[in-house]
Amino acid sequence: MPHSSHKQDLDQISELWRLGRTPIKIGVLKNMLRAYPNAGVAKELYEGFLCGFRLKYSGLRISFISKNLQSANCHKGETLDKLDQEVKAVEEIPGTSTRGRVGSRKQPRRVQRFDIEFETNRLINCSLAPNTIQAYQRALNALAKFRDSFDLDHSFPIPLNHITQFIAYMSCLDMASSTVKCYISAISFYNKINNYEDMSQLFVVRKMIDGMARSKLKRPDSQEVSVWIVGSSLIRNAFVHARSRTGGVNLGLHRIGVKIWWQGYGGMGLKDLESTIKRLMKYEKAPKYLVLHIAGNDLGKTKLGFLRNEIKATLEKVQSYLPNSSIVWSQILPRTNWRHSKVRIA
Fold first, then answer.
1. Using CA atoms, how far apart are residues 328 and 312, in angstroms rounded to an integer?
2. Whole-angstrom Cα distance, residue 216 to residue 229?
3. Cα four-point dihedral sign 246, 249, 252, 255
């Protein structure tokens, strides 16, 4: 083969490879396939998009580019014109259509192993309602996220301690017991469909779910304990952090009837406390406990002796507004530098 012809073939191969690359993000696909019901098909899909799908052929491999394909790629205009002519010719014949008909093949289609695996998975999915499939998929995704959060391996069958910890995790998130039952049913279905030992139906798992349902019974309003946490930006930042944590804004104390109301304001000083308490009393009943973290922003602006007396006077005024509330003073935290001080180094 002449050198120029060989170079042209290589250029053609690279061009066809560029057109055939998949836009699928392999990393995202890998995470989504973790909860795929058929582990064998999931592995084949991942490896196929990563390294290329196998043709199920064993023997001598000779690579070549079809001359018809090369010609069609080089003469795109002529190829499209010929295709249009063929389509129009078929449409002009009465009783014909460009769509294929069932049973039009002279010979039956050869069934591959992948077809059997795909059909098996399709039939299993058809046995469930679409909403059930979506709910089970959410459950398996939540389990995978839980395992990642606590550095647990993604082993199957799912160990018993993973299932019990997953139930406790969902309880800490204050999830409904019905949702937890649905998630455990999804795990059970996944285990059974893959012929794994089903740990989700053991006695301890069922008792945890029953206990969760009983613990979710609401307490009477008279037993609810209200807590206000008021202060500067540190309280505001603590609220933002608590909102994303397992126990939520109530720090996990909602199970014993505690409700926390966070009120943090950047730059808040001691002089702002009295007006803040008055404003909060317009929207909520007096709390059982009032936690205060304040006066850190006053250091450096007010002399210490005067500040100590001002703190005492302010707390007495607040106590007069909330006579039945217990005030909890949060100690001023040390800092590396003081914003309003002449010498900022602590």
1. 13
2. 25
3. negative
For 279, phi then psi, to 5°, come to: -70, -40
The Cα–Cα gap between 222 and 89 comes to 83
* Pairwise CA distance, residues 231 & 238, whole Å: 11
Q: Six-digit token pair at 32?
A: 């989504």
Express each pLDDT in 138-184 by its tens digit: 998 999 899 988 889 888 888 999 999 999 998 888 788 888 999 99
Token readout for 112 is 């591959």
pLDDT in tens, 255-306: 778 889 999 888 888 888 888 888 888 888 889 999 998 888 877 777 777 8
The reported pTM is 0.39
Residue-level length of the chain: 346
What tokens does 90 get?
A: 């078929």
The alpha carbon of 272 is separated from its chain's Cα centroid by a whole number of angstroms, namely 40
**For residues 267 and 138, what is the distance between their CA atoms, to the nearest angstrom?**
42
Residues contacting residue 138 through CB under 8 Å, at least 6 positions apart: none
